[in-house]
Amino acid sequence: MDPTASAFDDVDARLVAALQNDARATWGQLATVAGVSESTAMRRVHRLRDSGNLLVIGVPDPLRAGLGQPVLVHLRTRPARTVAVAEAVATRTDVRFVSIVSGRSDIICELIVRDRAHLSRTLLEDLAEHEAIVDSTTSMVLKTFKTRDEWSRGLLPGSEDRALRPVAPVEKPPRMDHLDMALIAALGQDGRRSFVDLSGDLGLSETAVSRRLNALLAARQLSFATLVNPALLGFELEAFLHLRVELSELESVAVALAGRPEVRYVSATAGYSDVICEAVFRDNDALYEFMTAHVGMLRGVRDVEVDTELRTIKRVFRHPLFVPSAQAGTETS
Hints:
Elements: H1 10-21, H2 27-34, H3 38-50, E1 54-60, H4 62-65, E2 69-77, H5 82-90, E3 95-102, E4 107-113, H6 116-126, E5 133-147, H7 178-189, H8 195-202, H9 206-218, E6 222-228, E7 237-245, H10 250-258, E8 263-270, E9 275-281, H11 284-294, E10 301-314
Antiparallel strand pairs: 1-6, 2-4, 2-5, 3-4, 3-10, 5-8, 7-9, 7-10, 8-9
């Protein structure tokens, strides 16, 4: 947790939870959930975003948007060099995620590679130049089941405690054109930009922008993320779970994990684990309950390893991650 950041109050927490539920909710909808006026909701959200403690952005799915193949790379480093390696890796424009963890690895990062030559060059040449890296393990992402923060759902009032499920994707995503890419790029800077602003940038009518956005969402080529340091809301533990699963049960295990509010990311991988998920918990007791009452009850799970996230350096291409808006930098692939 950033020592300079302060915990959110109850109103801030409800606003964040409402935005994680629906990143483009109207100010009126946010105000109703938080129990405040529209002007207060607007002022508070702007304050949190300007402080760098809250990000609301559009996030493309690399596979479905045709940006490249996600690859998870686990790195072991020499003692005392872990942070330096993580920061160096995070500066790469083809790296979407970097976290320092405790467990079998010291660092988990996600590469978005164009082809096998790109992956080979990165692993065998670029990363090999870092003398502090002593070992690496690579897992190809075969299918992504979830990339959504729902761990704050319980902070919403009971009547608003609804998990919004994504529209079922089309089997074969339509090919995107330059206007789709421009729309994704604009929402990558600010996921709450109005259709009026977007239409001015893209040279399209508001109706056309809305239609394109809905098509991207329906095809799961784009989703929205509301990012915040979970510790500011009382969720002190973030972890990766690596599962070895009977292949006949892989799909059902991944779907079951994706349905849990604690889980923010699930994918099937080809590597030392069959399914990897990232989840957010209040504390160790909540992780224990999740492991025993949920993961332990899933048929086909043979083995589980847990990596605790110590520090997330980069997420959805954002590096640095949580900084005041005046200092923020964004990288795109």
